[in-house]
């Protein structure tokens, strides 16, 4: 009997020891997992900071290129950089003046009729019904015109809808304007609009998108998307990409002839002459920084020579 009790006590002690060992192992594993998760979080945080630094570095390089050679900055090889195998940046520069400047539609309430017609053509090309185009354009013109000027198709002022009677402060202001809700709910709705005043002619056709060119051609009395496609092919060079080193230097008569205008001139009675291709130096700079599999993006709008002592002026900056 004593031997049996001794064996029982020995078995219980062994079970207790095994249980303690199990608990200790579980604690060690839990501690190791916690340390590992903290290391992963710390590593990811470091990657995020490195990616942000790379994106900012790309932006700084773009500013330097604009300062040194503003018209050739978009095709600089320095806009793509690599640091080791894990880190780097890629910068894209697109001319801002190829967009439609909405604040030039009716400065002080005086309509810029050629630009208004281009915007109408643009909305038609985007599939907006003609009646809705009238509402959208007239309401936009009323929004930026002094009180007392009311267009025929514009929405009336009410207690719930009060136009600002001032210039737009952001492209997103279109979301507040009567008739624009459906259009501004679509992805990429703002890709052809700007509020940046480039000075000079309305549109730099060297940077205008296909739809802006189609709208411009329609407003000028031109016809045929094939003309626009032929111009884009010529403008982009052999690689088919804007802003690269193989892009040819086009003068305005050559560009307009390619777009289908006889003699390389637009009809004088329309009062609209585009800017010569890629002569403006206001750019939308998008810099993507990467560190491992983490990416961060910053976007700037910069003007060459618009700052102190001829330095590039940073008009806007934001993280995407």
Sum up the structure in keywords.
single chain, about 325 residues, alpha+beta, 2 domains, five-stranded antiparallel β-sheet, two-stranded parallel ribbon, 7 helices
Could you characterize what this model shows?
By secondary structure, this protein is α+β, with helices and mostly antiparallel strands. Helix content is 40%, strand content 14%. The strands form two sheets. A five-stranded antiparallel beta sheet has the order 1-2-5-6-7. Strands 3-4 form a two-stranded parallel ribbon. Helix 2 (113-125) packs across helix 3, helix 2 crosses helix 5 and helix 5 (210-219) packs across helix 6 (225-236).
In short:
With 320 residues, the protein is α+β, with helices and mostly antiparallel strands. The protein has helices at residues 2-68, 113-125, 130-143, 181-184, 210-219, 225-236, 252-258; strands at 80-83, 87-95, 100-101, 193-194, 282-291, 294-303, 313-319.
